[in-house]
Amino acid sequence: MTDTLFLADFRRACTSNSCPFCALLTETARRYFSSLLNGFTLAPDIHQRLARSRGFCRAHAWLLKEVEQGERGDGNGTATLYSTVLQGIRGELDACLAEPTSGAATKTHWWSASPAPFGKRLRERLRPEGICLMCEHQKETEEFALEQLIEALDEAGSSGELALLYDASAGACQPHFLRLLERASTDSTARWLAHVQRQHLAALEAQLDAYRNRDYQKTQSEAEADCWIRALAQTAGLPHAFGEVVE
Ligand SMILES: [Zn+2]
Ligand SMILES: [Zn+2]
């Protein structure tokens, strides 16, 4: 049984000109950040969580900046949240620097396999505890969305509402296509997904061909003009739909 709220979100995501899962996850992240900035920048549990993960991952930190600048423009919410993040990092530096030095200095070379003991201890202390809060949130949303489509395909086949929406969308990016295949429990579902994917790829390939051989005198539709950007999105996914693991 498809969740009603999810259906409305998925329908909207399927009208975007990119992978519906990427569109859904990007929208989810924007909404989450908007709500965070508008009501939770002083919440102690959020501060603790962000301090442990050393802030958001790179992809989501830059999305937070976009939302902050797009909605408020003053940066106060991010300044409040990141004061705690920076305090935490500085605290670890202070604690490590206050430890007594251990014995004689050991000379290490840049090509040495093991880093100096002080650097090693400091790296351990600075390592993020747990994944980025937004990555965690998106992971849950993604699992739910993928499961909803697979369930709908198993129950109603390719004529169900979700299947029709998905079929009419721009199609899944390669990472989300692979995740769908991981979850498809019957060959008929997997084959239908592959068939839809093939159609989307063939259409995009044709657009790329037309773009490369275009007549520069004629104006092109917006859809044709950005096909090379959609080719990047098709293979890699949208930039804010996935987090990044920082070593
Ligand atoms: Zn995607
Ligand atoms: Zn993240």
Number of helices: 12
Quaternary structure type? single chain
Largest β sheet strand count, sense and barrel closure: none
Order of helices and strands: HHHHHHHHHHHH
Helix content class: 55-70%
Instruction: Tell me the span between the first and last alpha carbons.
Output: 40 Å
Beta-strand content: under 5%
Classification by helices and strands: mainly alpha
Rg computed from alpha carbons, rounded to a whole number of angstroms: 23 Å
Unreliable runs:
none
Ligands bound to this protein structure: zinc ion
How many structural domains in the coordinates? Answer: 1
Description:
The chain has 247 residues and is an all-alpha fold. The chain has one domain. It is built from 12 helices and no strands. The two termini are 40 Å apart. Bound molecules: zinc ion (ZN) (2 copies). One zinc ion (ZN) binds next to helix 4 and helix 7.
Concise summary:
The protein has 247 residues and is mainly alpha-helical. The chain contains 12 helices and no strands.
Which descriptors would you attach to this protein?
247 residues, binds zinc ion
Write the layout of secondary structure elements.
Elements: H1 4-14, H2 20-39, H3 44-53, H4 58-71, H5 76-98, H6 117-126, H7 133-156, H8 161-168, H9 174-183, H10 187-212, H11 222-225, H12 227-236
Helix pairs in contact: 1-2, 1-8, 2-4, 2-7, 3-5, 5-6, 7-8, 10-12
Bound molecules: zinc ion (2 copies).
